């Protein structure tokens, strides 16, 4: 089953008692050793299919049968000292929509954590996904953009991926690069598009930021 | 309304910290004893102007340069001022607000109180109109506390920037006499300091004891001559604008589909546009001085920009940033002539909606060619310095419109094959003008304020406070004063061919020197700026850290310190006079004669050559 992780952690998870209560969570995978110990992806067992607004929930469930009802996820500290898994992923990022100061640092953050993995950047926003225009992000490439404004590291764009042809183009790109994850950096439209992509692709991890 | 001036204000944390910053004084102004050394009599930059200026200012022209030295300086004939009786000084903001103006007031107040606590500084409320109406506010430490190192002119305010008509001059004279002022300090740019010089001359003739002193404060950076290296406010305006411009550059580079046309405040000359270009590296800048020198038409400028856009399009680039000085519109000869006609008709009292029918045929044709929004703006009444209301004329939109027309024409002809041209227009003027002053402007203004005091203590009239060697740290700055009349030039212009017309002497705005080092630097980099997108973000105005002591590039690249060099030359001449005295060896005398003859011959030839060069322009 595809996995979605939200960057906005539920506040209750910050409660230390809850955080160390393993029974509430199922360990999915370790991301690596962070500043305060090993960092895990954790998920609540209970799904969220029970929706207060039955009508709206049902409509969304129909549109996103694979994604709807997944549990929220949060990163928590681990008290174990299990060595980190030496995971080598192939991930790509895309800057979508209008530029905002700080976007470059999202990419820097991913790059710094994904040590050993391959990180690509699609050029010119979603258009880069369709046309398979990308650049491999290296330390040297990223350096001049750390803490700098704009979206000019890999540029941005407002294209959407919504027609069957466009989805096919995107799928070809993903297969060509053998991607295990795609990070969409943008606002409401961009994240809506990200959700559509996640539903369409039966693969990997997609992060909405 | 008067109660709004000089009131205590609620400051933000940053403003509070800035209000506590104490500028440093150069060594020559520290302590309470200052030596005044007088150099030779001054003359105008262009020798042919000297007679005209002398006739207009018989009592204040030709006075010597003044250098202020530390008390221990070993200089013969220097005058040491040790007595400081209490004096009454008036100060007035003329000219548009400029970051740092408040610090001039702080500086002179500080100097007055140090030398005699009983001295009084009166600020005229509302600028020149406050002077005429004799509305004053006595400046105190309490009043100054929330205005130190702050922007704007709201401590005293400003209104009409003019002390020129007979009625105005008489009102100023009456104010100084009634208030028993020993000195009147006028803070402003080229127009205000021209008025200051005229006032000084008038006061001498009227036997008014008030001495008039000018201070070079203007964001435009156009009060620039052999004695004045830069103006208070220019440093701040260029730094703030450069950050705004470079943010737009980053935005352009991120989206890759917009051209930004940015017009910059700075009056007729292009100093602000040039400096901001050198700091932020936009793709293109159109300098008014280049347009005037090449006599370009509107269509030719639009073509120049379109050619640049096409060159970038051929490299698949459809974004860019283009800077324009607000004075550009008046630098285009055809538009300048049109404006002259319009302003002439306006002054005759012709109604705005009837002007277009009274233009000459060619002016009417140009007027009809222009889009309606520009026509309305060209019909605005001129400023008090007789130029158009440059801040209100949206030259950036006009050029963006003309460029779009040109590109569409090329699309039809098939000579342009790129993507659609999208333009976004900005005017950067008031945003920067109201900024907190930079560290440099705080220092510069404060020290100038101190120099004003020493000018008055030395009994000088019609002088401007000057500081040279500014590209070095404060402790290397050289303090002095120069007669304002020596900064004047005479413009000769006549609408009728063949008619002889001698203009009135004035400090005219310095234009960007197309043979200067700053412009040369721009020419070297222009192609790279245009094509390579080497945008540079200097960041916001900084008061600490590596950016705090940055100087404007046009100040750093030029060989300045004219006053210092004049002084050095005098020292050499004095040495020669000391070495070659009657009774010295024959060989020494012969060598001196030979060298001096050569030097004199070279200088005379250069002077003649310079005059001829000016005549040919």
From TrEMBL, chain A:
Domain Phosphofructokinase: start-end pairs: 90-205
GO biological process: fructose 6-phosphate metabolic process
CC cofactor: Mg(2+)
Catalytic activity from the UniProt record: beta-D-fructose 6-phosphate + diphosphate = beta-D-fructose 1,6-bisphosphate + phosphate + H(+)
InterPro entries: ATP_PFK (IPR022953), Phosphofructokinase_dom (IPR000023), PKF_sf (IPR035966)
Keyword terms, alphabetized: Cytoplasm, Glycolysis, Kinase, Magnesium, Metal-binding, Transferase
One Pfam family this sequence matches: PFK
A GO MF term: diphosphate-fructose-6-phosphate 1-phosphotransferase activity
Taxonomic superkingdom: Eukaryota
Cross-referenced PANTHER family: PYROPHOSPHATE--FRUCTOSE 6-PHOSPHATE 1-PHOSPHOTRANSFERASE (PTHR43650), PYROPHOSPHATE--FRUCTOSE 6-PHOSPHATE 1-PHOSPHOTRANSFERASE SUBUNIT BETA (PTHR43650:SF28)
Designated name of the protein: Phosphofructokinase domain-containing protein
Taxonomic placement: Eukaryota, Viridiplantae, Streptophyta, Embryophyta, Tracheophyta
Automatic annotation (TrEMBL), chain B:
Family annotation (SUPFAM superfamilies): Phosphofructokinase
Pathway in which this enzyme or protein is active: Carbohydrate degradation; glycolysis; D-glyceraldehyde 3-phosphate and glycerone phosphate from D-glucose: step 3/4
Domain Phosphofructokinase: residue ranges: 88-452
Record's subunit section: Tetramer of two alpha (regulatory) and two beta (catalytic) chains.
Protein name from the UniProt record: Pyrophosphate--fructose 6-phosphate 1-phosphotransferase subunit alpha
The gene coding this protein: PFP-ALPHA
Pfam families: PFK (PF00365)
Xref: InterPro entries: PfpB_PPi_PFK (IPR011183), Phosphofructokinase_dom (IPR000023), PKF_sf (IPR035966)
Record-level GO BP terms: photosynthesis; response to glucose
Activity modulation comment: Allosterically activated by fructose 2,6-bisphosphate.
Role summary: Regulatory subunit of pyrophosphate--fructose 6-phosphate 1-phosphotransferase.
Keywords from the UniProt entry: Allosteric enzyme, Cytoplasm, Glycolysis, Kinase, Magnesium, Metal-binding, Transferase
Family membership: Belongs to the phosphofructokinase type A (PFKA) family. PPi-dependent PFK group II subfamily. Clade 'Long' sub-subfamily.
Residues making up the signal peptide according to the UniProt record: none
Subcellular location as annotated: Cytoplasm
Parts of the chain that traverse the membrane: none
Molecular functions per Gene Ontology: 6-phosphofructokinase activity; ATP binding; diphosphate-fructose-6-phosphate 1-phosphotransferase activity; metal ion binding
Record-linked HAMAP family: Phosphofructokinase_II_Long
GO CC terms in record: cytosol
């Amino acid at each position: 089953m595809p996995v979605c992780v939200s960057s906005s952690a539920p506040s209750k998870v910050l409660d230390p008692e809850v955080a160390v209560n393993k029974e509430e969570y199922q360990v999915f995978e370790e991301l690596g050793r962070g500043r305060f110990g090993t960092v895990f992806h954790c998920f609540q067992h209970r799904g969220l299919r029970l929706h207060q607004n039955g009508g709206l929930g049902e409509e969304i469930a129909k549109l996103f049968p694979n994604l709807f009802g997944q549990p929220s996820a949060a990163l928590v500290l681990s008290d174990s000292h299990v060595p980190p898994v030496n995971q080598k992923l192939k991930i790509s990022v895309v800057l979508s929509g209008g530029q905002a100061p700080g976007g470059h640092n999202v990419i820097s953050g991913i790059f710094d954590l994904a040590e050993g993995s391959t990180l690509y950047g699609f050029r010119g926003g979603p258009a880069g996904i369709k046309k398979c225009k990308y650049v491999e992000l290296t330390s040297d490439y990223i350096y001049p953009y750390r803490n700098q404004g704009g979206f000019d590291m890999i540029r941005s764009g407002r294209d959407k991926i919504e027609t069957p042809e466009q989805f096919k183009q995107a799928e070809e790109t993903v297969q060509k690069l053998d991607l295990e994850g795609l990070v969409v950096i943008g606002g409401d439209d961009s994240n809506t598009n990200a959700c559509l992509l996640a539903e369409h692709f039966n693969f990997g991890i997609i992060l909405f930021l | 309304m008067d109660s709004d001036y000089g009131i205590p204000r609620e400051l933000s944390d940053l403003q509070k910290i800035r209000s506590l910053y104490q500028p440093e004084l150069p060594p020559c102004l520290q302590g309470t004893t200052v030596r005044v050394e007088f150099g030779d009599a001054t003359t105008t930059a262009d020798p042919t102007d000297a007679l005209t200026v002398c006739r207009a200012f018989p009592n204040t022209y030709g006075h010597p340069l003044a250098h202020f030295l530390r008390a221990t300086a070993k200089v013969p004939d220097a005058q040491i001022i040790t007595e400081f009786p209490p004096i009454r000084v008036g100060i007035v903001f003329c000219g548009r607000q400029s970051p740092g103006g408040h610090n001039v007031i702080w500086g002179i107040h500080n100097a007055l109180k140090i030398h005699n606590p009983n001295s009084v500084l009166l600020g005229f409320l509302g600028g020149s109109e406050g002077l005429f109406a004799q509305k004053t506010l006595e400046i105190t430490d309490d009043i100054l506390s929330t205005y130190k190192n702050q922007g704007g002119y709201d401590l005293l305010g400003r209104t009409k920037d003019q002390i020129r008509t007979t009625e105005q001059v008489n009102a100023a004279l009456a104010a100084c006499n009634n208030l028993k002022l020993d000195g009147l300090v006028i803070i402003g740019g080229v127009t205000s300091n021209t008025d200051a010089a005229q006032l000084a001359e008038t006061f001498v003739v009227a036997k008014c004891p008030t001495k008039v002193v000018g201070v070079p404060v203007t964001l435009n950076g156009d009060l620039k001559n052999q004695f004045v290296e830069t103006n208070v406010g220019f440093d701040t305006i260029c730094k703030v604008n450069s950050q705004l411009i470079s943010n737009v550059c980053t935005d352009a580079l991120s989206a890759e589909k917009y051209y930004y046309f940015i017009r910059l405040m700075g009056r007729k000359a292009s100093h602000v546009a040039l400096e901001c270009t050198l700091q932020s590296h936009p793709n293109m800048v159109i300098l008014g001085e280049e347009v005037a020198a090449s006599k370009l038409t509107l269509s030719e400028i639009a073509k120049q920009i379109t050619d640049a856009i096409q060159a970038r399009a051929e490299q698949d680039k459809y974004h860019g940033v283009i800077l324009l000085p607000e004075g550009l519109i008046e630098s285009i000869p055809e538009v300048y002539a049109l404006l002259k006609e319009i302003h002439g008709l306006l002054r005759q009292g012709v109604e705005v909606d009837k002007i277009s029918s009274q233009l000459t045929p060619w002016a009417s044709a140009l007027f009809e060619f222009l889009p309606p929004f520009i026509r309305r703006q060209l019909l605005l009444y001129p400023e008090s310095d007789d130029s158009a209301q440059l801040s209100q004329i949206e030259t950036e939109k006009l050029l963006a419109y003309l460029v779009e027309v040109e590109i569409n024409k090329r699309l039809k002809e098939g000579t342009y094959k790129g993507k659609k041209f999208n333009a976004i227009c900005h005017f950067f003027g008031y945003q920067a003008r109201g900024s907190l002053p930079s560290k440099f402007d705080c220092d510069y203004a404060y020290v100038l304020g101190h120099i004003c005091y020493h000018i008055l203590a030395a009994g000088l009239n019609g002088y401007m406070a000057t500081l040279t060697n500014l590209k070095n740290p404060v402790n290397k700055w050289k303090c002095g004063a120069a007669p304002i009349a020596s900064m004047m030039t005479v413009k000769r212009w006549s609408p009728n061919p063949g008619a002889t017309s001698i203009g009135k002497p004035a400090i005219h705005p310095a234009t960007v020197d197309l043979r200067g080092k700053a412009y040369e630097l721009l020419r070297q980099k222009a192609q790279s700026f245009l094509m390579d997108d080497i945008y540079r973000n200097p960041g916001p105005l900084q008061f600490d850290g590596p950016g705090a002591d940055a100087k404007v590039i046009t100040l750093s690249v030029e060989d300045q310190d004219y006053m210092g060099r004049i002084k050095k030359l005098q020292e050499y001449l004095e040495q020669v006079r000391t070495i070659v005295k009657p009774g010295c060896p024959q060989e020494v005398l012969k060598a001196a004669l030979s060298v001096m003859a050569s030097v004199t011959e070279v200088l005379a030839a250069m002077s003649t050559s310079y005059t001829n060069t000016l005549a040919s322009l």
